[in-house]
Amino acid sequence: MSTRTTARRPGANARTANYRCAECGWTTAKWVGRCSQCQAWGSVEEVGGSVVGRTTVAGRVTAPAQPITEVDATAAAYLRTGVDELDRVLGGGIVAGAVVLMAGEPGVGKSTLLLDVSAKLAGRGSDVLYVTGEESAAQVKLRAQRIDAVADRLYLTAETDLGTALAHVEALDPRLLVIDSVQTLSSAEVDGVAGGVTQVREVAASLIAAAKKRNMTTLLVGHVTKDGSIAGPRLLEHLVDVVCQFDGERHSRLRLLRATKNRFGPTDEVGCFDLTEEGITGLADPSGLFISRTREPVPGTCVTVTLEGRRPLVAEVQALLAPSAPGGARRATSGLDASRVSMLLAVLQQRAGYPVGGDESYVATVGGVRLTEPAADLAVALALASAKRGEAVRGNMVAFGEVGLAGEVRPVPEILRRVQEAARLGYTHAIVPAAAHGPVTAPDLARAGVTVREVSSLNEALAVLYPGAPEGRTPTAAALH
Description:
This protein is α/β, with parallel strands linked by helices. Helices cover 24% and strands 24% of the residues. Keywords: ATP-binding, DNA damage, DNA repair, DNA-binding, Hydrolase, Metal-binding, Nucleotide-binding, Stress response, Zinc, Zinc-finger.
């Protein structure tokens, strides 16, 4: 038996691939519509030549490695922006050398917020460079005058070329650099149009390298796609230090800022802002925006306490039931998950005996707030029951808890903090889940005058609201047919 030896060509391990995924970097020799690595559609694009694996040789060390105990951490200390709600989200302020990506829909207030931050820092003696690629310098000046964001050390330039923008950075050496937006800059060194995957990757990499080299904080404005995700390659989110999402309803003044990634602070904080013609201001206590002002309680309304990050917010849920028209009952929601509301309608009918399945239902929140936390389930169910009965929930009561398909009310986090927030706003009664870790009626709640009723099922909660009413029923097998 002979052994056949095959001579290996030099470079036999090199793999020729003319197409690469813009999302994850996966390579292939031919074009495909879907990446086999990250399953992204339309992300595979042609590259200008063969992709050959190479090994980088060792270079010269410019700065020796230091023990971590000898590293000076003061260079990366927090610098307060002067906007308390932004500082809350960032974990205390901006960090020198950090790159922050601010994403949001057009018109949500990203540029207004960053222009306000730039003016406040410039007014405290820091040089700030504001690079705009979407407006002229005169247009930015008009908006700055309208929102009172004019400072002597705030420098404006309207540029779309990356090299020219970096030249401005070299000349000014600013403490803060604002790029509005990263999709408008392009580099002459790479192919592609501004906003394309290749250009965004090159622009972001160059700006991040300049920020780290100069210890310069950089704020990047980013666009979002139709589904609400950040436009451009996902590599952009991995390269930056902080990713902030700026949300808000088009017909509401309320704006919410969340950090989805933060290398220097928490990611569970939320900043609340009020966007007006005079500018954007932080809301330290936004709960009053989410409650309707009626003299008497109205059937179909219930107040809940939700957690936005670490912040408890008191919000009101409104429900309206009407006889259905021929062709099926209509379900409409605003500020709530439609599938979650449909589930609660089914639970209310099957577990509590309320015949709401054939009614048209309209459920909404007040003030444009969006409630995504399951803790709002109990308030939605009680609002629907109140609308069906035509009897209002008492005006000084809040309710929160997750409702399951069996009609049970499950515990939610931070029960004590939620009740304390309700007490601060003047509510005296609360319906809460039966806590598995013990009673939540602490002495400080008793001093605040809050009466807490713990319930373990939806029927118990309904019995608290409507004493003496018949409890719900579970349908028999005969009733299902």
